[in-house]
Protein 1
Amino acid sequence: MIEQVERDGILEIVLANPPVNALGRAVREDLAAAIARAEADPAIRAVVIRGAGKMFSGGADITEFGSLPDAISLPEVIDRIEACSKPVIAAIHGHALGGGLELALGCHYRIATPQAKVGLPEVSLGILPGAGGTQRLPRLVNVEAALEMIVAGAPISAIKAHELGLIDRLADKDLAADAHAFAAGITAPRPTGARHVQGDLEAIERIVQTSKLIKPGIDAPLACIAALKAAVELPLDQGLLVERDLFFKLVEGDQSKALRHAFFAERAAAKITDMPADIAPMSIAKVGIIGAGTMGGGIAMNFLSAGLPVMIVETSQEALDRGLGVMRANYEATAAKGRMTPEQVERAMSLLTPTLDFDGLADRDLIIEAVYENMDVKKDIFARLDAIAKPEAILASNTSYLSVDEIALATRRPQQVIGLHFFSPANVMKLLEVVRGAHTALPVLATAMATARQIGKVPVVSGVCHGFIGNRMLSPRQDEATALLLEGASPAQIDRVHTAFGMPMGPFQMADLAGVDIGWHRDPARVETLQDALCAAGRWGQKTKAGFYDYDDKRRPTPSPVVDEVIASFRDQAGILPRAISDEEITVRTLYSMVNEGAKILEEGIAQRASDIDVVWLYGYGWPRHTGGPMFWAQQTGLVTIVDGLTRYAGAMGEGFSLSPLLLAKSINQEGFDD
Ligand code: 3HC
């Protein structure tokens, strides 16, 4: 797990635990033994610790969390390094994250390549740095910078870390050689823990008052603050005890379990269960997009930003100009926020070829259709593509509901057809549902997954069904939410239950944002549903400043008396006497019913695994990450509780509702979804 090389009185310890040099049990034991060797051997004058492979270290081994410590702990190893009587130098390349950076903080000096990144991302796993990071970092950099790094969790560049005083030296070209030379010139250890903390409680309070990262009910950031206060107030040994205590409490808590689940779920989603190891993704060098509307333009931006040339096709010059204008405006808005340079904007736009010539797509490796949801239109486009695209081209549809299999059969090469369901705004949202059709060839699927990662998306494979994973689960939620309105709830009450749960918005806020008129038949005289009534009255959502809510000029919503009246008249027509609806009923009928649909998606094999469903909801709809996603949350809540709730309200949920046999079986057998 580690390699040791001694040369000229310097012991080089190389962490060798691929892929990320996680500091698991064996690494810690080897590291402690190597430090003991350095301490005991009079020929060794100094020690360099570095990482083999692509990084220094990705931190503690997260898979070990929750198991009983049966070996030397990381804090103990780091304490021994800090106490070593010979100078210890960390030589950092790639990443030094979490426990990896804490290990480097325990060393007496740090040298890094300018490209390296260092950070304490533990907060994103629902924990805090638990191997001295909260105590040693503010002894090297001021508490403001330490707080920012620990509470935000975002890594910083080695160059920035050097400016802050966290890194002593930036390596020139050869890190190992530079570290060796650096070590040779150092005569005495310099323990970080012996330094004074740079800052006071007031500095911490000032940031706490203004920070958006500290939210009531979210445990880890609050614990980070408590640990930093301990760093200011207490000597190192006592501060370390406070940190350790907070760490263990968090590790045992539901939020950290959920966030760790989310971490591994995201990585598991990249794996396709029946993909043979010898299938390599094809190379995608040129992309074509059909449709320069909101979706097509947003999709194009992903590829342009990743440096891939895109040809975008429209049917009229006006639509093309409008689409290009929106893309440029979006890029310029990003540049105005400082997240892109003007040169990057120009570079991205220069990779774009707008055209009205459909046949221009003939040389493209990947062509994505992003026109409106109409099967006939899509079939027509795919038949035309079939006639012009090169044989190995991947033909993708951005459909959000329609059958990819039916679309594929409009071509003579259904094996080349796949669904790529981007989420709006497509240049921002991380989720990509990769819809695997019945005929989709494995190399096509592998290429879609690889390309998704290339453009920074989190891909999840879905089988073909109406709405795929995400939108299919929205459907029972929306049906129940609408039924609850008629039975006596208000849009505000239902939305509040969802936002209190942690969703960014509730079902009606979402409908207003997306457009109440989506899917409306456009005949104001035909009023059969609540949606018809609102649309007929011009209440199309935020875009008309009226939907389920009224909106002011700043798009701030207020409950609408008009909507109350519309709902009341529907109740009258249906002979429904409104009743008081409890928040618990809303939770069961709108959230538990989603879990039920998720279980059906699983039993039908539409999703490969329950955690894939979680990833869809975390990255596509803003499901609160600290609950792990709908399926993990259901397991934490208890599948028996979910089934009980659904059974209790089954009558109210009407004939459309049926309990998932898988959900029932799992609850009876007391199993998790993936057991
Ligand atoms: N522990 C265990 N496994 C880890 C790990 C870790 N700290 N970090 C990554 N892995 C695993 C991943 O699960 C993945 O496994 P798989 O191949 O079986 O799916 C594999 O290593 C490769 O990971 P990525 O696909 O994420 O590799 P990348 O090269 O894209 O990214 C990385 C590398 C930036 C290091 C990224 O893996 C990462 O962000 N890791 C987590 C970093 C982190 O949060 N560290 C803090 C850990 S907690 C801690 O240190 C507690 C301490 O304070 C006591």
Protein 2
Amino acid sequence: MPKKVLLSVDTGIDDAIGLLIALKTLDVIGVTTTFGNTTVENATRNTLGVLHLAGADSVPVAQGAKRPLVGEPPPPSSIHGPRGLGDISLPISSKALCPLPAPLFIYEKLKTASTHITFISLGPLTNLALALKLFPSVACMIDEVVIMGGSTTYGNVSPVAEFNIYADPESAQIIFRSGCQIRICGLNVTRNVSLSASQLNMLSKSTSPVIQTVYKLLAYRKTKLKDLLGIESLSLHDPTAVLSCVEPEKFSFERLHVDVELRGQLTRGMIVYDIRPGTYSSEPSLFRPKHAPNAFVAMTADVDGLATSIVTILQSYE
Ligand code: RIB
Ligand code: CA
């Protein structure tokens, strides 16, 4: 039985592919959208377009945050193109967007679900943070929060911060301190997940409209990452985070305490991972972790195995 999940996305090229993978491997009971890679309005339209392309118009979508809890949204990234999906604009169905705001939608979905739900966040964490603020019982209704965010090595928007956490660190702090079970899949793993030239070539030859679209999105991403940042890897962040929930055996995780820096002059938005040796103790001690672990953090992954999984799952689209 696939896990029942709610997704939050800022669709976004890698979100779009993450969503397509989730639709084939998980039981997606709803999607919320947020600002991030683009405006929330674009993210919503892109999400509806991806669902329509995948024949999944029945999956409800609720629009979410336009901005973070504090401050303004970061400027949209040119890596994702002017509206978020490269140079593509996907048709959407006439299906109406769910009228509930995202935090209420999350609460309603959790309340009416017959089982605990996994929440997968592929963008800034604002929607879930607002749901937790409004309805604290949400923490007990979630099986696990799977987060694409952070990095145990270096960041992307700053030397130490990753985009999704940096875009709304106050929301990340609410989630890290909520008592929810957390699984973090950060840049240290996701930036190394790419497709080979022959895998891309294979996708390019497909006659499936879904795979043709994915190929166009990946080709756009490849050019932008190379031209703007000099990066060769496709850095499939969001599909990798989805797979950390589907194929956890392809990752090594460490159980750690995590929190987020809100004030640092150079470090705002950085996840602080307590990787010190020594077990946590409530006894006062300078040199040991002072908090019990609250997250499983992905440290390494079988990146070739994940690339194969991504291609195989995408190829199941007719
Ligand atoms: O830092 C990578 C993350 O930021 C991905 O989720 C990407 O889609 C953007 O949201
Ligand atoms: Ca994203």
